[in-house]
Design goal:
By secondary structure, the protein is an all-alpha fold. Helices cover about 60% and strands about 0% of the residues. It contains seven helices and no strands. α2 packs parallel to α6, α3 crosses α5 and α3 runs parallel beside α7.
Length: about 100
């Protein structure tokens, strides 16, 4: 596997990141969807290791002073909210992972 975290971060640092078939193929590799989701939910180490899942606990406080993390979070949501064949393929392929990652962090 290539350096997934670096590739994802560089993609999300672009002014207008976009999904294409090549990017979807990359994100379908083991563990990379979770890395992408981490930019949306921005879990800290405590949240990642927490039991019971997030839904049963108090909401965590987000770090609002990290503008780069906020930009990456916004860009991720923009990408996965777009209406395209590539986005649809990604969402259908990784539905369970995405649902779990968003709900329980």
């Amino acid at each position: 596997m290539t350096d997934g975290p670096t590739v994802i971060a560089k993609l999300l640092d672009l002014e207008k990141p976009d999904f294409n078939d090549r990017m979807v193929d990359f994100l379908l590799e083991e563990g990379l969807t979770e890395l992408l989701l981490d930019h949306v939910v921005r879990p800290n180490e405590e949240a990642k290791a927490a039991v019971p899942p997030r839904a049963d606990r108090e909401p965590r406080k987000r770090q609002l002073d990290d503008m780069l993390a906020m930009k990456r979070s916004y860009n991720t949501m923009e990408m996965v909210s777009a209406s395209s064949r590539s986005v649809n393929r990604f969402l259908v392929s990784k539905f369970a992972t995405i649902r779990t990652g968003i709900l329980f962090y």
